Amino acid sequence: MTLQPKYHGQFIIDIRWRLSYTSHHKKKVLIKIIMTNSKYNKEVINLVKVAHKLRKERKFTEAEAKYLEVLELDPDNVYALVGLGNLKCKIKRFKESLLYYQRCLELEDTNLYALAGVGDSYRGLNDMDSALEVWLKYLSYNSGDYKIITRVGDVLRKKDDLPGSKKYYQIAIELHPKDPFALMGLGDVCEKLGNDAEALFYFEKLISSTDCSIFAITSAANIYRKTSSYEKAIKLYDTALSKDPKNSHAWNGKADCLRGMRNHEAAINAWKNALKYGMNRISAMTRIGDSYMSMNDLENAEISYQKTVAMGYDKYAYLGMFKIHLKRNHIDKAFETLTMLIKNEPHDPRISLEYNIFVEKYPHVKNIENKKAV
């Protein structure tokens, strides 16, 4: 409804009300006060429009200047305050964005744009509890906003409240079945809850959409890889690599599948690409060494493991070196490597098992060690 214009100083104020219905509230909420019928107000409106346009064009410095011009003319202009908050949020200056949003809420405590922005700012400051509180308040006014519902799911997921997170993601999906963020979140939560089949359902649903992300593709591929469905996994990794040829995670996943299929030469090439595009060098070189070991290429395996240990300690590389010494019948070197491993990894069951098997097969090395200790 529109009230009759009232004079306020030299300006005519036209107060407009808008009905805002939620599942819990049915009340009239004052949304905004618009100044009209004055040259002053037209100047303000035009400045706000220009500022919004500049912000959307990512011309942030120019946009900020226009918003500040608006505030010089009208210090309580909520559009400029929210616009500045959005701008500062966009450039990750969250403490500043928070101030603008909070000032807006002092003027209009139910301004949904400002409430959403406050939540975004707290999230940017890694204050998840405050973000959650603000977004839940937002939803008390507008319960059908699937984007904010998804953000609540995101926060709960980060707080390790996986059942609560799943609940909110599912609400978001009911409201907007193709929301990529809710689908991605649901897939991730289901996987963490140990329900790979359900996680795969959501990942594949996302893959079939136009908003498909590479992360969704590799996540689905990872599940197939985990269940030894290597061909399906490789197909998805290849899809990811067709979109991003430098994706080290996809190269690593593909390499691991190829190793599982005993195609060690192709696995080595894939890991070399993963290494080229940013995979952790120690992990990559160790896995390349393992593949050479599977091919019984001890020379290249040793070169790979030596490159690994030159960069830092890695138990898997030393385990590989231990096996090379055994294959070459260098028992003393093998025992020396194994002794070092057992000291560094006293609670590792695999290394303890290797140690026990070794000393049972070569009891004389244990006697040599005891003599050295004396």
Descriptive tags:
374 residues, mainly alpha, three-stranded antiparallel beta sheet, 7% strand, disordered N terminus
Basic shape = elongated
Give, in order, the helices and strands.
EEEHHHHHHHHHHHHHHHHHHHH
CA-based gyration radius: 31 Å
| Mean pLDDT score | 86
Q: Report the major sheet.
A: 3 strands, antiparallel
Structural classification: mainly alpha
* Helix coverage percent: over 70%
Which percent band covers the strand fraction?
Answer: 5-15%
Q: How are strands sequenced across the largest beta sheet?
A: 1-2-3
Amino-to-carboxy terminus distance: 97 Å
Count every helix, treating DSSP H or I runs of 4 or more residues as helices. 20
Task: Report low-confidence residues grouped into runs of 5 or more.
Answer: 1-38
Number of strands: 3
